[in-house]
Amino acid sequence: MDILQGLSEGEIRRQLTIRQRIIFEGAVYHITQRAPGTERIFLEENDYLYFLKILKDIAQEFHVKLFSFTLLTNHLHLLLQITQKNLSSAMKNLFERYAMYFNEKYQRKGHVFCGRFRASLCNDDAYFLAISVYIHLNPCRAGLCKDFRSYRWSSIRLFTDITAATFVDYQQILSMIDQDIHRARQKYQQILSDSLLHIESCGISGTLSLKRVAGQIGEVIQKITKRHEEKNLEAMVEKIKSKQRMRKIEERDARKYAIGQLLANGYTPAEIEKMLGISRATFYRTIA
Fold this sequence. Notes:
Blueprint: H1 2-8, E1 14-17, E2 28-34, H2 45-61, E3 64-71, E4 75-82, H3 87-105, E5 118-122, H4 125-141, H5 156-160, H6 171-177, H7 181-201, H8 210-241, H9 249-264, H10 269-276, H11 280-287
Antiparallel strand pairs: 1-5, 2-4, 2-5, 3-4
Helix pairs in contact: 1-4, 1-8, 2-3, 4-7, 4-8, 6-7, 7-8, 8-9
């Protein structure tokens, strides 16, 4: 749970690089691109589908790993990792190919995108998770949907309930939350739901500010993590109580761990002995 702890403690560090980008193999970036002024990037369903087709092709051609995305009417978000030092050429290829398609289809001239894309370097795991949550909350905050799970043009369904062959490596983010995919999805949805409610209750409206939202997400994750840890500890205590004698090493280790966690949560030795159904001698022998 180091990543969740880092978020809950506000240890989120990032580096915005617009004119002079820091590019290196293995780096993870939050990419944003938008239309100029009040223009739109996507006008109909086929536009979204075509962009996703190009995005898949680019991921394969340039060996880019895509972790999550959201396509909105006038801007988009990508969370990706480069395995070669080719971020600029990959994104240039992506946006130029879509711009050519868009201008030809709608018989127009001029810029489809508002200048150069923005790339934010993700230089720690906490920011990596925060940006994924931020990306998936954008459609709700932009008023495009009431339920983030219902927004079609994002990777959200892969994080909540769909297991399918895809070019999006959603499992890497979920595995940072829990190694069990089912539990990870439950926790991720809880983080999204609670974060959205918490952000709204704090009066943060309009376009999401990552800097402001990251702190709100951290508070929510801290609460969710604490609840899950409490549930796991309660289940462990019940299991230990059901064991009259512990002969296996792993069973004794589990009891030692449970006692340590209970002590860390402020329980006294007497309270722990009563909860686990053990004697004072067993208590001290276990923690010795």
